[in-house]
Amino acid sequence: MRFLYFNFILIIAITIVSATPSYMWYGTCSVEKYLSNGCTGVGEPDTPHEEADGFHTALQNRKTVINNVVRKQNRRDATATANAWKNMSAPMNYCDFVFFAGHGHGFGPVLGCWPEYLIDNQDDMRLGGYGYLKWVQGAACEWFVASQYTDPPVGEFARWDPAFKGVHVVQGHRADSFDHPYGEDASEDFWNRWYNQNQSIYSAWCNAQIYWIYTVTGRRGLQPAQMAHNSDYFYETFTEAENSLAPDGASIFGWATVGNPQYSYTHWEH
Predict the structure, then answer these.
(1) Residue 139: CA atoms inside 13 Å, Cβ hemisphere, count?
(2) Which domains does the chain have, with CATH numbers?
(3) Alpha carbon distance 156, 145 (integer Å)
(4) How many angstroms separate the CA atoms of 75 and 14, rounded?
(5) Is the pTM of this model over 0.85?
(6) pLDDT tens series, the chain, 270 aa
(7) Phi-psi region of 149 (alpha: psi -120 to 50; beta: other; left: phi over 0)
(8) Cα(41)–Cα(254) distance, rounded to whole angstroms?
C-alpha cells in the first residue's frame, strides 16, 4: 500500500448545506482525575470535562437541523475505562461520533494507569467494530507523533492502521496540545465549519484547533492532525458524509503546522 503524507496549513471553503447523515449519536469521554485512576507524578488537566461538554453543547445547538442528535456516552474519570474503547463491540463503537479530552500519547487516549484504564496500543481498539463509529476527535497530545517519541518506537501507520475497523477519520494532534477554556468555542467553530460552511472535516478540525488553541491562547505552536481510510474520507464534507462504515485500514495522514510545536514525550508508567 502506498502511504501519502501531507503537511500543510489552512483550507477554507464556504457553503450552506442541509443535514445528510441519518443519525448523529455521539459519545464523550474526558479525564481530569488521573491520580484517582492510578497515575502518579502526572499533572491533572483542568478543562477536559468542559471541552467534552462543549462538544455536547455544539451538537445540541444543531439538534433541529442535524438528524437524530443523541448523546449515547458520557464517561468521565472513573467511568472512562478502557473497555469503553476496546474490542469490536466496545460501547464507543455504537456512537457515530466520539470526542475525547485528556492526556494522550502515541498510542491514543490516556485514561489512567491501573489495568482497567490501559490502552497500550491500537491493537486494543477496533474503531467502528460491529457498531456505527465513523468519526473520532482527540483533544489530547501526540496521538500522531513521530515514531521517535513513542515507546517503543513505532510509526504512525503501524500504530493506527489496526484501529481502523470502519471508522472514516481519526483526528488529534501530532505534537503537544494544551488545556484551554474555549472548549465550547472550539467545538462550535468545528461544527460551524463542517456543517454550516461545508468545509472538509480535515479543514474544519485544523482551522478550529489553530484558532482557539494557538491564536487565541498564544501557545508557541500546534500540529492538529488527521488520519483516514482514504482521501475521500480525509476530505469528507458534511453533505458527503456517509452513514456506512469505511473499509478497514488507514492510508492517508496529514497535519497542519503553526508556530513552534512542542513535544513533551511522557513515558506512561503502568
Answers:
(1) 36
(2) 4-10+19-259 (3.40.50)
(3) 7
(4) 34
(5) yes
(6) 333 444 543 433 333 334 489 999 999 999 999 999 999 988 899 999 999 999 999 999 999 999 999 999 999 999 999 999 999 999 999 999 999 999 999 989 999 999 999 987 777 899 999 999 999 999 999 999 999 988 889 999 999 999 999 999 999 999 999 989 999 999 999 999 999 999 999 999 999 999 999 999 999 999 999 999 999 999 999 999 989 999 999 999 999 999 999 987 554 433
(7) alpha
(8) 32
183 and 56 Cβ atoms separated by less than 8 Å:
no
Q: Are 268 and 105 in contact (CB under 8 A)?
A: yes
Q: Where are the beta strands (DSSP E) in 3-132?
A: 4-7, 24-30, 69-76, 97-101, 104-105, 108-109
22 SS3 class: coil
- Please, what's the b/e burial string for 61-83 (b: 16 or more CB within 10 A of its CB; e: otherwise)? bbeeebeebebbbbbbbeebbbe
181, with CB counted inside 10 A (0-12, 13-18, 19+), is middle
